[in-house]
Amino acid sequence: KVSKASKSSKSKGKRRRRRSKSKGSSKETSKGTSKGKSAKSSGVVDPTPTYKRTTIIKKRCKRENACNTAMLNNPTQCNPLSPSPVCVSCCTGRRCNFALPSNLPYPVNRKKRAATSIYDHWNNEEFIVADDKPAYWNGTVPTCNDVEPPVFTHCPKELNATLTLNGPLPVDFVVPTATDNSGITPTITSIPAGIQPPYVFEQDGYVVYVATDSAGNQANCTIKINHLDGIPPRVQCPQEKVVDLHNTTSFVVPARFPDVIATDNVGVVRVVYDPPNGTIVQMRRYLTVTVTAYDEAGNQGACSFNYEAIPAGCPEWSLQKPENGDRSCSATIGGATGTGFSCNVRCPRYTDFVTDPALQYICVFGGTWEPHNYVPDCTNQLFPGYALDYFLQIDTGGPVDMTCLELYMNATRDALLPILDSNLCDPYAKNFAVNIERLTATVEGSVITISLRVLITVVDTTGISPNFVAWCGTQISTAVQAFNPGGNFVIVINSGSCPDGTVQPPVTEENKEYVCPAGHIFRGSQQAGGYCLMCLMGTYANQTTNECIPCPKGQYNDEKGLPECKACPEGTSTLDVYSRNVSECIPMCNPGEYSSNTLQPCDQCAIGFYQPQLGSTQCIQCPDEKQTATVGSTALSQCRDVCIAGTISSDGLSPCEECPLHFYMPDSGATACIECPADKITEKTGSFSNTSCVDGNFCDDHMCQNNATCVDRGRYYTCTCPAGFTGVMCQTNMDECAPEPCMNGATCIDGINSYTCKCAPGYEGANCEEITDNCDPSPCVNGQCINGINSFKCNCIPGYHGERCDDKIDECDPQPCQNGGQCLDLLNFYLCNCSNTGYDGRNCTDKIDECLPEPCLNGATCTDLLMDVNCTCPPGYEGKYCGTE
Hints:
By secondary structure, the chain is mainly beta. A hairpin with a 5-residue loop joins strand 65 and strand 66.
């Protein structure tokens, strides 16, 4: 009989190492025999299992509104959420490697990775790599090429050049600048070549600056060149006062200003008069008119002239009425129109003219007033004063110090005043005031001579006439001459150093006369008497000549009765005499200007002339054919020699510079040289003829460095640099290490058009971007090598362990088989041989039921024993299994 297989059991023992869940199993078959032998169990090993390994790379894809966030050299971008977002790994910049998880094998040469991707509910992306096979790489090693052009950090849109009479002015500007993603400063060139500030742009157009990086990428900066008109219009006003004749009897008229000449290099847009043409002005009152011309560019030029409207004939009002007086006119017959006026002027009682008017003023329309149109004003008649001049002598009997003279003069005044205050002029003493003035003293030996004036002024005119003052003077004269009749009057000084003196007779009267206050003149005679007249505004009183004299040019009087005129403010003067107000003081021509009357408006001195003085009527010509740079020169030092042909200066005058190479100038006094044709050069500076422009090759003597190629541009050359060099002369070795191409702490060593990376331990590759492959050859005997930075790790296959997976795991240690079972050590597996133990199962822990399948026969009762049974036979049977009757 064959016994049934025993029930297997699972081992519950703990293991030191992770083991496969595959099971080994054994099955035992027993046959019943008459001899009662029992069958032994035998173990069978399953076929070698297949191992699966799935590697998952997880990378979160951020929400749409937080996407486009830069990762290290690998920005991650997200498409909109609907449909489901897809994360795209982008390679940007020069370092575009992406650090992979450390639990994946790292190849020597980084390549693209084969992967599929899935997303969870939260948009977390999982890359499923190498399903059912080891992770692997495919494709070629990616390289990064710089395709990004430079970026201009300064690029003006336009430059404006100002035009002047001498041509466009140089433009000073900042050359455009650019940066590059490589970190190396790009090379900047211009089209046309050689545009560097300050530069004279001869015409409108464009200049293009080109920035070129080390990879040859280029960016352009285009600048528009505009020429702005900076030349103001030239305006020419009349130099003389404009006299506008109006055939009218009106006192006011509309102004009729003359047309002025305004010219401009482009065109005059408008001309403005200030005040405007047609302004209502008073007759015979001059005003200054300013004319301003504007061109299209807004430049303006201006000039001024004086204007006065006068009547063409002689209306009655054109003959001035005397102030405080009367004018009477009557019609007269004559002249072309048969009409006119005859006028007389007079002053009322107790007033008079300070100067005599014409006996009669006559004017016929179409003519002028005869003999003139000047009418003096009337002024009040004032009572004159009376002056008596005396001298007397004092003998001190000895020498007199000069310091004593003041004491003698004061003592003499004190001696005479009692005589003068003794009511000599009664009964009219109250009408007069008597004073001593002009007191002077001289000394000769012991004799002091004292001069003095007794002045009698009228303080009250009540009850007297002007000649009463002379009568009072006679009374005083008699009394003064009677002073000291005995010659014994002593002048007491009361000073120890100044002796007393005796007045010597007689007291001598030198002069007596009618006098007027300052600012007045006397009208009448010293014998018959007269009166005083106050000088009018615009005049001053010259009491020496007894005249009211007109204020000369440059002076005025805005008050009556002044002894002198007031000077105009500095730098101003008047058009004529008789000026009555400071407003009539007009600015004089400044140095460098002139006019016919020395006053503004003025013309500037022409080129070649100068004037250092204020208020001139003409300018001085420069000597020796010298010239001035501009109009309005003020000094001889501004007269300079003219630049000869072949030389120039900013104004065409000395100091001059020779025309540079490849330029010439045939004219004298030039401000710019003429450039030779593009394919011509000059062999020396200072050329003055176009015949000096000849063919030439600048590359014959070029200064290009580092094997650069010289490119002849006709008048100059440029250097085409070999790879790795930059600069105008290719003199600079480009620093290829500037963009820091070496990664992972490597040291960059610059070369010529190259660089070398000295990698830190554990890295390799051209840029040290790769971790050194420590898995080639694989150090792992029975496992997969996982590369690390300067290290490796062995991922052992099941059944092995150790640093290099070279130690087989003893699956029978500790002993897993129980009840005397024998352990068979296999690879990542073990089997328990439970033969002859009475047990079976994974670890021989399951007791074999020997009563199965029913070894006892003939209805006997089976009792299970260890590796045996006991059969209790029914009556009539016997034997091990009750098989014997």
